[in-house]
Design brief:
Order of helices and strands: EHEHEEHEEHHEHHHEE
Shape: globular
Strand order of the largest sheet: 3-2-1-4-5-9-7
Radius of gyration: 18 Å
Structural class: alpha/beta
Helix content: 40-55%
Number of helices: 8
CATH architecture of the largest domain: 3-Layer(aba) Sandwich
């Protein structure tokens, strides 16, 4: 993906805007951050001002299921680990295709189920996140093809998923005494159970993660 000062990027599900600040600082490109949380968005704006990047980054309140931008507005649609939380992923991808210019790039990561995963194996994770389903590499291939995109590559980095959640679990357990009294024991127990489910899912082959790249 070639990115420069004339490139228009949208980060959908941008969170606190870390990716946008990296892209703007590294390439001088214009980035639109789209995110549902007004609290996160206000913090994002503050951090952009502090970094001297607010002239390059526009933070927009909104949902990636109904992107409040015109058709063909962006050269790159970017997202990190956000689509997992949508209840209508086909709609999200339709919106991505709508705002992406012909020849543009769609680059994202998402915690996914593997194509071979069973619902029974995924159930602990789905229940913990209050989800009915997860995307899969095959799902994203099929849906993007339906929308006229071609696959460039899937950089399969699944081995990093249990490593990441295992590290978070280890840090949580090592600092448990510090957290006592600050968060409830029940919450901490649920958190550790959820992290163990992610580690087990990654190690057992039920989950997938990596960088997906499609071209419009």
């Amino acid at each position: 993906v070639e990115i420069g000062p004339d490139t228009q990027v949208i980060d959908v599900g941008a969170g606190y805007g870390g990716s946008a600040r990296f892209l703007a600082r590294q390439f001088g490109c214009k980035v639109t951050c789209l995110n549902l949380s007004e609290v996160e968005n206000e913090r994002n704006r503050e951090m952009n001002r502090e970094a001297g990047l607010d002239h390059l980054i526009d933070v927009v309140d909104g949902s990636f299921e109904d992107i409040p931008c015109q058709d063909n507005a962006f050269d790159v649609v970017w997202s990190q680990d956000a689509f997992l939380h949508s209840g209508d992923r086909p709609r999200v991808l339709e919106e991505v295709a709508r705002v992406l210019r012909t020849g543009g790039d769609f680059v994202f990561t998402d915690p996914m189920a593997s194509d071979a995963a069973t619902q029974d194996a995924l159930r602990p994770i789905l229940d913990r996140l209050h989800l009915d389903s997860m995307g899969t590499p095959g799902f994203y291939d099929k849906q993007t093809a339906r929308l006229g995109m071609s696959k460039v590559e899937f950089d399969d980095l699944t081995e990093q998923l249990p490593r990441h959640y295992g590290r978070v679990l280890a840090e949580t357990e090592s600092r448990e005494s510090e957290l006592t009294g600050k968060i409830s024991e029940a919450y901490l127990t649920r958190m550790k159970t959820g992290l163990r489910n992610w580690v087990h899912g990654g190690e057992s082959g039920s989950l997938a993660w990596g960088i997906l790249h499609y071209k419009s």
